Amino acid sequence: MVSSFLKEVNALDSFTYNFPAIRGIQAGREYYISMCPLKLIPKIFIFDESTLPAQLRAQRTLNKARIPDIAQYLVDNPKDYVFSAISASISGAPVQFIPAGENGMETKIGAIIIPMDAQFIINDGQHRRAAIEAALIERPELANETIAVVFFIDTGLKRSQQIFSDLNRHAVRPTKSISILYDYRDPFARFVMDLAATHPLFKGFTELEKTTISNRSIKMFTLSSLYQGTQSLLNKKKKNKHLSTEDEKIAREFWEEVSKNIPEWDLLIKHKVSSSELRTEFVHAHGLAIHALGIMGQALIKQHPEDWKQQLEQLQKIDWLRSNEQVWEGRAMNNGRISKAQMNLTLTVNYLKQMMNLPLTNEEERVEKRFLKQTHGGIR
Fold first, then answer.
1. Please, are residues 163 and 152 in contact by the beta-carbon 8 Å criterion?
2. pLDDT digits over 172-200, tens only?
3. How far apart are CA 38 and CA 301, in angstroms?
4. Contact in structure between 98 and 92 (CB atoms under 8 Å)
5. What pTM, to 2 d.p., does this model score?
6. Which of 7, 152, 228, 376 is 20 to 30 A from 93 via CA?
7. For the chain, what are the domain ranges?
8. Torsion of CA 269, 267, 350, 232, to 10 degrees
């Protein structure tokens, strides 16, 4: 049975793509799942639709900024990478499926025969396709590894556009916190997880999955805000950031010293006040403050490498109450609500730097002048 199947496939026109495939049915239409060598992916999916208007495309335009990161992931993890299937539509030529047999599963397993003049349109996975092409330049040994491809038989542009819409309709990106929680390749993510699990300020008070905290939660910090704040403190902006023993020591000591100089944080550690009370009344109980303190801390340690711990005592002069609208409205808050917008982050950093007698960067100075100009003509 198998030999006759192979003879039938080999007898076909040589100017075709022949893929082993499994045939399935969705919504009454046939589709096929196959395994394609990575070296073939850039060759068969060659169309660049970025120059076409959106209404004539079957997918969004390629975001080239995403490609290097995905390619580097493949290059850095040749023995431990995972790529989900690419979904593609085939149009412009008849497609033939030859079953391996005549009974049972044998009618669903076989080969899909695609003329070389057929058009392939990626419905989901265009960035993976571009990243594979880039990665193969650095790691040609990956050429014969495979990726799953789901082939749909297209009946025109509208159908292909609808497939793209349907595939992405219910896609939900994981939260930043849960991405950090499950990332074992990023040493910085693992350090932040350890910080959340062992540091007195964060142990038991860090939300590990969500990026927002409900009013009744006993948590006060999110894993994502701790990551951002510590990342800014240590100035570790690149992915897979290397951490020295000294980096880890500074991070632990910095957050410990900050907690000593924010009385309410010390009370939280001693379980003498609840997280919900602090979030209701104080600016420092929100992710914005963690991020801003990290940015300020990086500048402080650079300016005062020997006595930065003593300098942090000036934090005690800050009135963190949200009711202190003279300071926080327009900086950390908009209409009484804490805002994580970049402008609010910068203005909050500015205030902390001013209280710590630290110079502002040129961009921070520009933002500060604009803020003061908009606020009572510079009078607050």
1. yes
2. 677 888 888 888 888 899 999 999 999 99
3. 48
4. no
5. 0.72
6. 7
7. 2-169, 176-378
8. 0
